[in-house]
Each structure stands twice: as structure tokens, then as C-alpha cells.
Write a structure and sequence with these properties.
Chain A: Keywords: Transferase. The complex is a heterodimer of chains A (215) and B (234). Chain A is of the alpha+beta class. Chain A has 11 helices and 4 strands. Classes of the chains: A alpha+beta (215), B alpha+beta (234).
């Protein structure tokens, strides 16, 4: 077994975060595509609590939960391309915004894609509000942490291919509300690690419709 | 330098989340001023420093505001000298963070529903789910004094609810999660935790919590019914 292995699913934005981080750090690893309908012994043994991907196996030891994996990657390979800044306050802010993305955006996404009528209208309002908050937090910076691509960028960029799907389901334009986020996403896509990891937005829309039923 | 700048903690006396921040500060040996917040009438100070969530705890360190109890704990560990809260090894750190997150993601909702739903099949289901969660936590202790070993640390503080608050809820609702003969390691750990010198100084008395939860019964039941009908995430 390779020293570093990633149990993942090709279209998972959470798995993609880990792929980007490993690529940025120059860490060689074995990618293991998992069947989520029929979970492997290895996956169930490695993540018995949640039974989910991604799981990073380092020397056979599992690390679960994508943001925890990102932090682990940063700490286990500290010399290359730090993802978190050095200053404790800047680190706290990065953690805060990564949590915001995982709690707020993901919650809005689920509601936007799986509800109808009033509930969906509310989800759309909440989603636009959350994206605008992130747009405001980014401000005129190149990246969320400032001049360098880092933790929050990795956490958020893998959700950007989902914008097209949000727009289709919610009937709104992300760019109209959050032009800076859209520009930032394009800037991130110039990085090889990001370009290689992201799913094509049309493909995301296709998958979502299959999963949740047509819009 | 930064370390010497004054520290303030905006919070309430009964919140386990505020306790996490207070305990972390005390364990680290950082003096702080507690600013009590009335959550029914939120102060300008709170709204200014936590505009996104408008919740306690908030730690103010000089002109910096840090929100969210687990983020606060990591900040305290990194910004100040003193005994480390998190382990030093990256894998052990990831393990501690995983279980702290487990408490939020997997435990908060079933805990509330187990405690506050009217007795019945649904409520029984949540009791079962919570006991399974407690069994997992029990398994993490594995005969150790604290989650990280001999010394109190991040995960112990993060899990404070299971050391103290849970017993107050049980007393008020009559719902038993930590029965007399169940989870011996967690019960023993809970005693160690609540008897720690630094923890004692910022732990609300159980009688206080019982009085508060009794007074809030109707409100909690209302919140719980709302929670039940919300679609569960992921």
C-alpha cells in the first residue's frame, strides 16, 4: 500500500479539496475511486463513524472530514506551500470562514436543490446572502488570505463548479451578485492543481438532476 | 507584544460553548475579563464583533475578535504561551479535531431531540442514537485519564457537555442517557474534568443549570419540535 492514499469519489467537492492540497504540497499519493453505492471494506474500516469520503490514509492511518484533512496535510508537510498563514489571528479567520462555507453554503445548497416553492425561495435568498457575505469578505484581495492561495480558497473553490447548478435551480446570476467571487474563481482555476481537480459545471448539473430529480 | 494585550470574553454563565473558551483561557493561564451578555437583548459589542452569527462566545484580544468556540480554543492555543491544549503530533491533532467536530455534527441534534421530545417511539430512537454516540466517546477514552492522555486538553474541554451539562439535562427531563452502570470511563472522566482546578473556576453549578433548564422547558420543547421538522443536513 502506498504511503499516502486518498479514498475519494470523482465528483466530490470535498474530496477535490484534498486533491488540490496534496498537489499544491507536491505529495505523491495513490488515488482510490470509491463506489458509494457499495462501500468498500477499506472505506468502512477507515471511516466507521461517518462511512464517507474523503479519507486520507497516511502510513495506513485514516484522517476523515475534508477540512480536518486539509489541516492535517498542512501540518504533516509543513515546508511546502503553507495553506494556513502563520499569524494566529489570520489562522482563526481562515478557520472561521472555512466553517462558514461548510455550514452555510452547503446547507443553502442542499435546501436550494431539494426543496420547492416557499422553502426553495428562502433557500435562494439565503444562498445569495451567503455568497454576498463571502464576496464582501474577499473584497479586493486576490485570495481570501490575501496575496497567497490558501486554506479558505481550497475550501471554497471546489464548490464554484456548483454555481451553474445554483443558478439553474434558483434562477439567479451569481456574477450579478458576486462579481469578485466569480473573478476569484477564474483566478484559482489558473492553478494546475485546481484546474485538474474541478468537475465541469455542466457535469455537476447533470449529476444533481440525476440525484435529486430534474429542476 | 500581542500576548500582553487585554483579553475579554463575551458570554453567558450557563453556556457550555462559553465555558470552552473560559476553560481554555484558564488552562493556558491567560487572565481575562468576562463580559456577560443578555441573549434576549444583544449588545452593540456582540453585534459588532460577531455580525455573522450574533452568538456567544466571542473572545476579544486587543482589537481582534475571534468567534466560534472551537476556533477560539485553537486561537488561544496558538496566540499564548502555556501548556499546549492540542497534542503536538499532526495525527493526534487530527484525531482530537475529528471528535470535537463529531460532538457538533452527530450529537447536538439527537441530544436535544432525545431530551425534549415527548416520550414515544421517535424520542426512543434518538435516545438510542445518543447512547451509540456516547459509546463511541467512551471508546476514545480507553482507560486514559483524559482524551489526550494524562493531561487535560482540547478534546476534554470540547466535550465538557458530556462531563457536566448532560447530568443537569437528565435531572430536569428525567431522560437517562448516562445510566448508573453505563459508560464508566465517561463518568470517571467527567469527575476528573469537573474537579480540575482551572475548570472549576468557570463551571456553572449544576443547581444553577437545573434551575435554568427547568425555567426554559416550554421554550426548549418548542425549539425541539421545530428542529425535528427541519430537514437534517447530509
Amino acid at each position: 500500500m502506498a504511503d499516502v492514499m486518498l479514498l475519494d469519489f470523482w465528483a466530490s467537492p470535498f474530496g477535490q479539496r484534498c486533491r488540490i492540497a496534496l498537489a499544491e504540497k507536491g505529495v505523491a499519493y495513490e488515488y482510490s475511486e470509491q463506489n458509494l453505492e457499495q462501500k468498500s471494506e477499506l472505506l468502512l474500516r477507515s471511516n466507521p463513524v461517518h462511512k464517507k469520503i474523503p479519507v486520507l490514509l497516511h502510513g495506513g492511518r485514516p484522517v476523515c472530514e475534508s477540512l480536518i484533512i486539509l489541516t492535517y496535510i498542512d501540518e504533516a508537510w509543513p515546508e511546502m506551500m503553507p495553506l494556513l498563514p502563520r499569524d494566529p489571528y489570520a489562522r482563526a479567520q481562515a478557520r472561521f470562514w472555512a466553517n462558514y462555507i461548510d455550514n452555510k453554503i452547503v446547507d443553502c445548497q442542499t435546501r436550494l436543490l431539494t426543496t420547492k416553492g416557499e422553502a426553495q425561495e428562502q433557500a435562494k435568498k439565503d444562498m445569495i446572502g451567503a455568497l454576498k457575505t463571502l464576496d464582501s469578505e474577499l473584497g479586493d484581495k486576490d485570495y481570501f488570505g490575501g496575496q497567497a492561495f490558501g486554506f479558505v480558497d481550497v475550501a471554497f473553490v471546489t464548490l464554484t463548479p456548483w454555481f451553474y447548478t445554483y443558478e439553474k435551480y434558483g434562477d439567479f446570476s451569481v456574477e450579478e451578485h458576486c462579481p469578485r467571487i466569480v473573478a476569484w474563481a477564474a483566478r484559482c482555476r489558473e492553478r494546475e492543481s485546481v484546474a485538474k481537480a474541478l468537475t465541469d459545471p455542466e457535469k455537476v448539473y447533470e449529476i444533481v438532476q440525476e440525484e435529486y430529480g430534474a429542476n | 507584544g500581542k500576548m500582553a494585550e487585554p483579553v475579554k470574553l463575551i458570554g453567558t454563565l450557563a453556556s457550555p460553548f462559553v465555558h470552552r473558551a473560559a476553560a481554555a483561557l484558564r488552562l493556558k493561564g491567560v487572565p481575562y475579563e468576562l463580559i456577560l451578555e443578555d441573549l434576549q437583548s444583544k449588545s452593540e459589542l456582540l453585534l459588532k464583533h460577531n455580525p455573522i452569527h450574533q452568538k456567544v462566545p466571542v473572545v476579544l484580544h486587543g482589537d481582534r475578535a475571534i468567534c466560534e468556540s472551537l476556533v477560539i480554543m485553537e486561537y488561544i492555543d496558538e496566540a499564548f504561551d502555556g501548556p499546549p491544549l492540542l497534542p503536538t503530533d499532526p495525527y493526534d491533532r487530527a484525531t482530537a479535531r475529528f471528535w470535537a467536530q463529531f460532538l457538533e455534527q452527530k450529537c447536538s441534534r439527537p441530544f436535544w431531540l432525545a431530551m425534549w421530545l415527548d416520550a414515544g417511539e421517535e424520542q426512543k430512537g434518538f435516545v438510542k442514537e445518543m447512547k451509540e454516540n456516547l459509546a463511541l466517546l467512551e471508546g476514545q477514552l480507553q482507560g486514559k485519564k483524559f482524551f489526550g492522555g494524562d493531561s487535560i486538553g482540547y478534546l476534554d474541554v470540547a466535550a465538557c457537555g458530556s462531563a457536566h451539562w448532560i447530568y443537569a439535562f437528565e435531572e430536569v427531563t428525567g431522560v437517562s442517557l448516562m445510566g448508573e452502570n453505563e459508560f464508566p470511563a465517561l463518568r470517571r472522566w467527567g469527575k476528573e474534568y469537573t474537579e480540575n482546578e482551572s475548570v472549576k473556576e468557570c463551571l456553572p453549578a449544576r443547581v444553577q443549570l437545573v434551575a435554568l433548564f427547568s425555567a426554559m422547558k416550554d421554550k426548549y420543547k418548542m425549539i425541539t419540535n421545530g428542529m425535528l421538522h427541519q430537514k437534517k443536513n447530509n
